[in-house]
Specification:
The structure holds two protein chains of two kinds. Chain A has ten helices and 14 strands. By secondary structure, chain A is an alpha/beta fold. Chain A folds into two domains: 222 residues, P-loop containing nucleotide triphosphate hydrolases (Rossmann fold, 3-Layer(aba) Sandwich); 61 residues, Alpha-Beta Plaits (2-Layer Sandwich). In chain A, the strands form three sheets. Chain A has a six-stranded mixed β-sheet, sandwiched between helices. In chain A, helix 2 runs parallel beside helix 4. The longest helix of chain A has 16 residues. The two termini of chain A are 29 Å apart. By secondary structure, chain B is mainly alpha-helical. Chain B has two domains: 138 residues, 3-Layer(aba) Sandwich (Rossmann fold); 237 residues, no CATH class. In chain B, strands 2-3-1-4-5 form a five-stranded mixed β-sheet, with helices on both faces. In chain B, strand 2 and strand 3 form a beta hairpin. In chain B, helix 1 crosses helix 10, helix 8 runs antiparallel to helix 10 and helix 8 packs parallel to helix 11. The longest helix of chain B is centred in the middle third of the chain and has 40 residues. Classes of the chains: A alpha/beta, B mainly alpha. Chains A and B meet through strand 6, helix 2 and helix 4 of A and helix 1 and helix 9 of B.
C-alpha cells in the first residue's frame, strides 16, 4: 500500500507502564479517507495506542508515522481527538469554550465564530450558545465535546467511544456527521467495544486483545474469511438436532429465532435435512454472515 | 507561544469575570473604608468641654497648671484662646477638651468651698474639681472629685498637666532659672547615620523595616489567598477530565505555565485594585494627620529600590505559587493538596525571622547565601537592599536563580502532571512523583 494513502502507520510499536505491557509489537495502517475501527475488549490497549498517535505518550519502541512524518506537536493541530475521558469547563459558556478549544489548535479569528455557529446549528444546540456548560444535559455536553474535536477541521479524527451514553436519535445524528466527514476525505479512527456501531460505520478494523493485534483488514475481508457458518433458524420442534455437537457448535436463542453456528466439517444442507427429517416445522432457514460481535467474541475468547 | 497565551487568556478572563472575584475585590476596600471612617466619625463627634474647678490652697499652682494644660495645644488651637481664667482647648483629639476655673481658697473654709462645688456639680455646672492642699508641692497628692470617674482620658490629661506643672513649680521654688529649666526638659535625639554617607543622608532604618515588613506581608497574603487557587487551577482539568483533550493540543509545560501566569495575573489585578484603594486611604490619612500639624514620614528610598522590591515580591509569589502547582500536579482533589503544601509555605514564615540576622550583618556569608536560596531570597535580599545594598550582580544573580527555579519546578510539575493524568484517580506518593518526573 502506498505511503501517501496511509494517514497513520504504526510499526512494531510497544509501550509498557512499569511491569505492565499495554501495547506489544503493534503494527497497523490507517488508510486515508476511511473509517478505521480500533476494536477490542476493555484493557486491550486501545486507549494507549490512541494516546501514542496523538502524542500524549511516546512509544517505548517502534515508530509512528502521521501523514508520512514523525509525530510532533505541530502535527497535533491536524488531529481532532475525542477521548473516552472527556469533560468541559463547567462554568464556561459554550461559545467561549469552543473558541478556546479552537485556539489551542491554532485556529483563531473570525473563521472560528462562523464555525461555532455552523456546528452548533448542525448538532441542534444553537440556542445554547451562551449557556454555561453545567446547565447542559449530559447528552448536550457530549455533542459539544464532539464539536471540540472537529472545530479545527482536522484531517484525522480520533473518536474513543463517541456514542456511549447517547440516545439513539443523537447517535444517528453524530453517525451521519462522521460519515459526512469521511465523504469529505477525512480519516477517522473509531475506537469502541460496541460492535453493532462499529459494524455500521467502519471500513477497516483492527482487533486488539491483551495488548496485541488479533487481526486487521477491511470489514468485508474479515467477514468473508470467517465464512458463512452462521445460520438463523426459526422452527418448531427439532431441538435435538440443534443440540447435536457434530452439527452445531453453538446455539444462541433469541426471542423468536435461533442462531446456530455450524460445527467444523458440518454443512448447512445436512443440518436442514436433519431438521426436516426430525419433523420440525421450519419458518426460516437462512445462512447469515457472522456479525462483528460473533467474530469479536470468538476471537477474544479463543485461547491465545 | 500562541497556545500559551490562549491558556493564559482563558484562565484570566474566566476568573476575573467570576462573581466571587468581583465581590471580594470590591468588598475589601469597602470594609477597609468602614474600619477607617467609622472610628473617625465617632471621634469627630463634638463633646462639650470638661469643666473643672481648681481649689489651689498652695496659691501658686493654678497658673502653672493652666499653662501646662493649654500650652501643648497652642500650636493647633489658637483660635480657642479665651481671655481670663477660662480657656477651652482640644488637646490632639476632641475627646478631652477642658474649661478651667480657679476657686478662691482664702475667703472661705475648705468645707464651705466643697459644699458649694458639690452644689454646682449637682446643678451640672461642673464636671469635677481638684483640691490641692497647702503642702501639695511636698507630697504631690491631690484629689480629683468628679461626676464621671469612668472618663479616664480627662483624668489622665489632667494628671499629666498637674504633673508637669508641679515639676516646673518645684524647680522655680528651688530657684532654678528659666533657661536651665528649659534645658533640663529638652529631649534627646539619637540619629543613626549610615557609615560613609554624607551628613545629610540619614539611614532610614525604621522605613526600611516597614518596607521589608510590607513586602513580606504582601507576599504572605498573596500566597495565602492565591496559592490554593493556583492548586485548584492545576487540578481543574483533572477534575473535569479535560486534561486528555488539552494534551492532544498543548504541551503540558505550556499548559502549566499558562495557568500559573494566568492565575498570578488575576492575583496581581486584585492586589493592584486593593493597593490603589489602600493607597488612597493612606494619602487621605496622611493628609488628615498633616492637617493636624503632625509630620507624616514617607520612607525616602532610591527609586530603583522600589523596582527591586517589586521584582522580589514577584519572585516570592511565583516561587511559592509553583509549589502549589507542583502539589496540584500530584493530587487529584484540592482538599488533599492544601495539607501537602502547608509545610512548604511555613518556610516563608520562617524566612521572616531572617530579618534580624541579615539586617545586623548584611554582608556576612550567611546573608549572602540566604539571599541566593530561592525560598529565602525574597525576604533576605529585600533586607539587604534596605540595610546595605549589595552589588548589582548579586541582586541580578539572586533573581536569575529564583526565576530559573520557578521554571524548573514548573517543568517538573508538568512531567508529573502528564504521567499522573494517564493514571486517573491515583494520587502520587513522593517517590512515585519523582519516578514519574523522570520517566515522562
Amino acid at each position: 500500500m502506498a505511503a501517501n494513502n496511509t494517514t497513520v502507520k504504526l510499526d512494531r510499536v510497544s509501550k509498557s507502564f512499569g511491569e505492565f505491557t499495554a501495547v506489544r509489537e503493534l503494527s497497523m495502517d490507517v488508510r486515508a479517507g476511511r473509517v478505521f475501527g480500533l476494536l477490542g475488549p476493555n484493557g486491550a490497549g486501545k486507549t494507549t495506542t490512541i494516546r501514542m498517535i496523538v502524542n500524549i505518550t511516546a512509544p517505548d519502541t517502534g515508530t509512528i508515522l502521521l501523514f508520512g512524518r514523525h509525530i510532533d506537536s505541530n502535527l497535533q493541530n491536524r488531529i481532532g481527538y475525542l477521548p473516552e475521558e472527556r469533560g468541559l469547563y463547567k462554568k464556561m459558556r459554550v461559545a467561549d469554550q469552543l473558541r478556546f478549544f479552537a485556539e489551542i489548535k491554532d485556529l483563531r479569528g473570525k473563521e472560528v465564530e462562523s464555525r461555532i455557529d455552523d456546528w452548533l446549528a448542525r448538532v441542534k444546540l444553537s440556542e445554547w450558545k451562551n449557556k454555561r456548560s453545567m446547565e447542559l444535559s449530559k447528552g448536550m455536553q457530549q455533542k459539544i465535546q464532539f464539536i471540540t474535536a472537529v472545530i479545527h477541521d482536522p484531517d484525522l479524527l480520533i473518536l474513543d467511544e463517541p456514542f456511549s451514553g447517547l440516545d439513539p436519535v443523537n447517535v444517528e445524528l453524530l453517525k451521519e456527521i462522521v460519515l459526512d466527514l469521511k465523504r469529505a476525505g477525512k480519516t477517522i479512527i473509531f475506537s469502541t467495544h460496541q460492535m453493532e456501531v462499529a459494524e455500521k460505520i467502519c471500513d477497516d478494523i483492527c482487533l486488539l486483545n491483551r495488548s496485541q493485534k488479533v487481526f486487521e483488514g477491511s470489514l468485508r475481508e474479515i467477514k468473508r474469511s470467517f465464512g458463512r457458518n452462521s445460520i438463523a433458524v426459526r422452527c418448531e420442534g427439532g431441538d435435538g438436532v440443534l443440540d447435536d455437537p457434530t452439527l452445531v457448535s453453538k446455539v444462541v436463542r433469541h426471542a423468536d429465532e435461533v442462531q446456530a453456528l455450524l460445527a467444523e466439517g458440518a454443512d448447512a444442507q445436512t443440518l436442514l435435512k436433519r431438521l426436516i427429517a426430525s419433523g420440525a416445522v421450519i419458518g426460516k432457514f437462512e445462512m447469515v454472515e457472522p456479525s462483528l460481535n460473533d467474530i469479536f467474541i470468538t476471537k477474544v475468547t479463543e485461547p491465545a | 507561544m500562541k497556545k500559551f497565551f490562549s491558556v493564559l487568556k482563558r484562565e484570566y478572563i474566566q476568573r476575573v469575570r467570576a462573581k466571587m472575584f468581583i465581590v471580594s475585590t470590591l468588598l475589601l476596600p469597602v470594609v477597609m473604608s468602614l474600619f477607617i471612617l467609622v472610628p473617625a466619625i465617632i471621634l469627630s463627634i463634638e463633646t462639650p468641654p470638661t469643666r473643672v474647678a481648681v481649689v489651689d490652697q498652695t496659691g501658686r499652682m493654678y497658673s502653672q497648671i493652666r499653662q501646662a494644660l493649654f500650652n501643648d495645644q497652642q500650636e493647633t488651637d489658637t483660635q480657642n484662646v479665651n481671655a481670663g481664667a477660662q480657656r477651652t482647648t482640644s488637646p490632639r483629639r476632641s475627646f478631652s477638651r477642658f474649661t478651667l476655673e480657679e476657686v478662691n481658697a482664702t475667703s472661705q473654709s475648705l468645707d464651705q468651698i466643697r459644699a458649694g462645688l458639690d452644689q454646682r456639680m449637682r446643678a451640672r455646672e461642673l464636671e469635677g474639681y481638684v483640691i490641692l492642699s497647702p503642702d501639695f508641692l511636698s507630697h504631690g497628692k491631690a484629689d480629683f472629685i468628679n461626676r464621671n470617674p469612668g472618663d479616664v482620658f480627662s483624668t489622665q490629661v489632667l494628671q499629666s498637666a498637674i504633673n508637669r506643672a508641679t515639676r516646673e513649680q518645684r524647680l522655680i521654688d528651688a530657684k532654678v532659672d528659666t533657661k536651665t529649666r528649659q534645658d533640663v526638659f529638652k529631649p534627646v535625639e539619637l540619629q543613626s547615620v549610615k557609615a560613609g554617607a554624607t551628613g545629610s543622608q540619614q539611614s532610614n532604618s525604621n522605613a526600611g523595616f516597614a518596607v521589608v515588613f510590607g513586602v513580606g506581608l504582601m507576599m504572605y497574603l498573596a500566597i495565602l489567598l492565591y496559592g490554593q487557587i493556583v492548586l485548584g487551577a492545576v487540578i481543574e482539568e483533572k477534575e473535569t477530565r479535560i486534561a486528555e483533550i488539552l494534551f492532544s493540543s498543548v504541551k503540558p509545560f505550556t499548559l502549566m505555565m499558562g495557568k500559573l501566569v494566568g492565575v498570578s495575573l488575576v492575583a496581581l489585578t486584585q492586589l493592584a485594585i486593593w493597593g490603589t484603594a489602600f493607597g488612597l486611604f493612606a494619602v487621605y490619612g496622611v493628609m488628615m494627620i498633616a492637617s493636624e500639624g503632625m509630620r507624616a514620614n514617607i520612607p525616602s528610598l532610591p527609586f530603583i529600590h522600589y523596582i527591586y522590591f517589586g521584582l522580589f515580591f514577584l519572585l516570592g509569589f511565583f516561587i511559592y505559587a509553583t509549589i502549589y502547582a507542583l502539589v496540584g500536579s500530584m493530587v487529584t482533589t484540592a482538599q488533599e493538596g492544601g495539607q501537602l503544601a502547608m509545610p512548604i509555605i511555613l518556610i516563608l514564615v520562617v524566612s521572616f525571622y531572617l530579618f534580624w540576622p541579615v539586617s545586623r550583618s548584611p554582608d556576612s556569608p550567611f546573608s549572602f547565601w540566604v539571599s541566593m536560596i530561592p525560598f529565602t531570597a525574597p525576604v533576605a535580599m529585600v533586607v539587604r537592599i534596605v540595610t546595605q545594598t549589595p552589588p548589582f550582580w548579586q541582586i541580578a544573580l539572586s533573581l536569575l536563580i529564583g526565576f530559573s527555579t520557578v521554571l524548573l519546578i514548573m517543568w517538573v510539575a508538568s512531567r508529573i502532571y502528564r504521567v499522573g493524568m494517564l493514571m486517573y484517580g491515583k494520587r502520587a506518593s513522593i517517590p512515585e512523583a519523582i519516578r514519574w518526573a523522570r520517566q515522562a
